[in-house]
Write a structure and sequence with these properties.
The complex is a heterodimer of chains A (about 350) and B (about 220). With about 350 residues, chain A is α/β, with parallel strands linked by helices. A 5-stranded mixed β-sheet of chain A has the order 3-2-1-4-5, with helices on both faces. In chain A, a hairpin with a 4-residue loop joins strand 1 and strand 2. A 5-stranded mixed β-sheet of chain B has the order 3-2-1-4-5, with helices on both faces. Chain B starts with a strand and ends in a 25-residue tail after the last helix. The interface between A and B is large, with 37 and 39 residues.
Chain lengths: ~350, ~220
């Protein structure tokens, strides 16, 4: 089947997303977020997210079918995020998707959330022209993930080049936002404060960038393409403390700008390095942190300098959504991949090598 | 006129049953408390097929009953989202049954036999607590007087206790022999549900009975 109509379901974190695609054509893109309920806590509370998915699942499904102006009969297959993500949240989507597959008799694909962030790049709406790309890479940066991937085949062979060994980049943003009393989610508030601050005011560490971590191209250190944001977070915390101890006003804008500079610098430097050393000629950016102005600018600058193409999809396709799940599902169907057995489990720590279960 | 229903319960273990009038004609269950979202769809497919109902059309099915708990959250949600989605897709009515009511219905006749005019049904709530409710026994028919609640065992009303909660806390709860490992099952949900539907009372909204909040605390830095 060349242009299958696929319904995609995403519930791995705090977004209940359901999208519908026909081949590479986006037909529906509906998302309900429980973000407002997490604000008071300065981060996503898994149980709140899971409870919201139960309430939102059917209304979002109805809205998606209405937007696409089709019925479930018109769907060729269903895809759902099986992992990675929050266990309780994933299981709502997986159970709902299985019920939908059972009740319609349609095939179901339990797919990998991270690969779906790449799959969205195959939609016409993403603005990417991947037909002329020789070797595609993807940089995923969000509240839950930070990964650099090499895509040999979207539906059968994706290689993890590097990732975070502790916090995700977006998580570091949330934690630093809490430290400087900026609010939640950390990404947009710090980005805004950073625009009023001096990014060189503080020299915050770029984790895992020492020669022993990096090694050389021929003898790479094990963390050559990996990130660590916990030391950066600690450095910010110490800086904040220094001002508090002296009872001085915290230069929040400068701290925000310097923190953001450190994150964007180390992410883009290592991503472009990994791309260069693996003959990647085009990078697709995904995840919520793709909305960050400094990351976008620096990545654009550095990929251009390295002669690497870059696609940044519209931000509502970068953040978690069901359309990306549907987009990957459509590629799986088109490539003749066998659907999942209805007995599959949600896998909170699913590895990138498992594209569909 | 004969009526056929699908019933699900995931408040403790996972189970599915197809009932026609008052008879269970197909039934599947697991003793595991931790794999609901894996096994449930398969159970439903098997039970419907055994009852010669095509799962992709559900022709011959009149509605769905689902146990709404209380029960451990993740498993409970699996059953409820499944029931809601099936009902929505098949365009059938879906009814909630308090899972404790289902178990009370199963044990009430025995409670009557042992002379228990009032009794308690208790299941495992983890975190050293039980989910429970207090029932009046009217000639072998349960009538819920209080609950559902979630408490530590010593705080449960002192009455004969049916259900796995009694087996977990034998020092604190007076368990009835033969029922100290009993958990709600889809066939109980169907039995209670069909009676409740006939009487026009006793059904619940189709939403999880969590009884507990989400337990998240506001971080120190964000407290004003």
């Amino acid at each position: 089947m060349k242009h299958p109509t696929v319904l995609g379901i995403e519930t791995s974190c705090d977004e209940t997303g359901i999208g519908i695609v026909a081949g590479t054509n986006l037909l529906a893109h509906q998302v309900a977020s429980s973000m407002d309920e997490h604000v008071a806590f300065g981060g996503v509370i898994p149980e709140i997210a899971a409870r919201a998915h139960v309430t939102e699942f059917l209304p979002v499904l109805e809205a998606a079918l209405e937007e696409a102006n089709i019925t479930l009969d018109d769907i060729d297959a269903i895809a759902v995020t099986a992992g990675p993500g929050l266990a309780g949240a994933l299981m709502v989507g997986v159970s709902g998707a299985k019920a939908l597959a059972l009740a319609t008799g349609k095939p179901l694909y339990g797919i990998n959330h991270l690969i779906a962030h790449i799959g969205v790049g195959y939609l016409d709406a993403s603005g990417a022209d991947l037909t002329r790309v020789n070797q595609l890479g993807a940089l995923l940066v969000s509240g839950g993930h930070s990964e650099m991937l090499k895509i040999n085949s979207l539906t059968s062979d994706v290689e993890l080049l590097g990732g975070t060994i502790d916090d995700a980049a977006g998580e570091a943003y949330d934690k630093v936002a809490r430290l400087i009393g900026a609010g939640y989610p950390g990404g947009p508030v710090i980005d805004k404060m950073a625009s009023q601050g001096d990014g060189r005011a503080f020299k915050f560490p770029r984790g895992l960038s020492a020669p022993k971590n990096m090694g050389t191209r021929d003898a790479p250190g094990k963390d050559r393409y990996n990130w660590s944001f916990s030391g950066l977070k600690t450095a910010v915390s110490r800086a904040v403390e220094q001002f508090k101890i002296r009872d001085m006003e915290i230069p929040a804008n400068d701290i925000a700008a310097s923190f953001q500079e450190a994150v964007a610098d180390v992410i883009t430097k290592k991503a472009v390095l990994a791309a260069t050393e693996h003959d990647i000629d085009h990078i697709l950016l995904g995840g919520g942190v793709a909305a960050n102005s400094r990351l976008r600018n620096l990545l654009t600058e550095r990929t251009q300098a390295a002669g690497i193409g870059l696609t940044i999809p519209p931000i509502n396709l970068c953040t978690d959504n069901g359309a990306m799940v549907a987009a990957l599902g459509a590629q799986l169907v088109a490539d003749g991949i066998v659907p999942s057995d209805l007995g599959f489990s949600a896998d909170p720590t699913q590895q990138v090598s498992i594209i569909s279960v | 006129m004969s009526k056929t229903y699908l019933a699900l319960d995931t408040s403790a273990t996972a189970s599915a049953a197809v009932v026609r009038d008052d008879d269970v004609i197909a039934h599947r269950c697991t003793s595991s408390q931790r794999n609901h979202s894996e096994v449930l769809a398969g159970f439903i497919t098997e039970a419907l097929t055994e009852a010669t109902i095509d799962p992709s059309t559900a022709e011959g099915l009149d509605g769905i009953f689902v146990g709404v708990g209380p029960g451990p959250f993740t498993g409970l949600r699996a059953g409820i989202i499944t029931a809601q989605t099936l009902a929505h897709t098949w365009q059938l009515p879906v009814y909630g049954v308090l899972s404790l009511d289902g178990l009370a219905h199963r044990v009430a006749a025995d409670a009557f036999r042992v002379g228990a005019e009032e009794f308690v049904v208790a299941t495992d709530a983890r975190r050293k607590e039980v989910y429970w409710a207090h029932y009046d026994n009217i000639g072998g028919q349960p009538q819920r007087l209080h609950g559902p609640f979630v408490n530590a065992a010593p705080d449960v009303t002192e009455l004969p206790v049916f259900g796995a909660g009694a087996g977990l806390y034998p020092q604190e709860l007076f368990g009835i022999a033969g029922f100290t490992d009993a958990v709600p099952d889809a066939s109980d949900i169907a039995a209670y549900g069909t009676i409740a539907l006939r009487r026009g009372r006793g059904l619940q909204p189709v939403e999880p009975q969590y009884l507990r909040g989400h337990d998240a605390k506001i971080p120190k830095q964000l407290r004003s």
